[in-house]
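Q: Structure tokens for this one, please.
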Amino acid sequence: MSWLNDTLVGFDLETTGTVPAESRIVTAALVEAKGGEVVRERGWLANPGVPIPAEAAAIHGVSTERAVAEGRPVAEVADEVAAALCTHWRDGVPVVVFNAPFDLSLLDAELARYGLASLADRLGGAAPGPVLDPLVIDRAVDKYRKGSRTLQSACGIYGVELAGAHRAGNDALAALRVAIALGRSYPAQVGELDPAALHDRQVDWYRDWAADLQRWLRRSKDPAAVVDGGWPAR
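A: Here is the predicted structure, written as tokens:
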């Protein structure tokens, strides 16, 4: 049976910045859905322990003042989010993460920062998975399409409603529905694959994309450019 009509979990973080090793969690969401319809949603607001830059707050709507007043300690949030994710993976449920190397690497960095077990440690040394990353899949199946590859643009391409972008729960659900739309649009390449096989295929797709980008950067901008080809986390 295709995963398209089965249970999926969407995951998203909103953060203080754009560098996974340095940025901190502000909000997190896990949205469980079956056939694209929400069954359960969990959300977290964290006090990241550092000021939230104004430009980040303008995107996700959470100020430093609100995070301090209403948020829980970020170590507790990271631990709970990691535990929930790993429970889904141990149960064999695919987790949908748009641009997975950002969110999963950032979560692992937060866990390390507070001396907490990594995702891999919680999974007995196994890499997180299965992961479905609509960004990686979209790049592979529609490689030469011009224009933006943001979640908002993917929603427009694949007919998914995204109300309130950059709210973790909204983004998590939208990414999940984009993944389903991709599976239906490209059955042989995506929808008919077992989630574990699709996970492995994305490892290759991401590595190839990173290598192509690195070659282009070295030719056109920086001869020493390095693009990390690790997926779903660095």
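A few notes: The mean pLDDT is 96. The longest helix spans residues 195-220.
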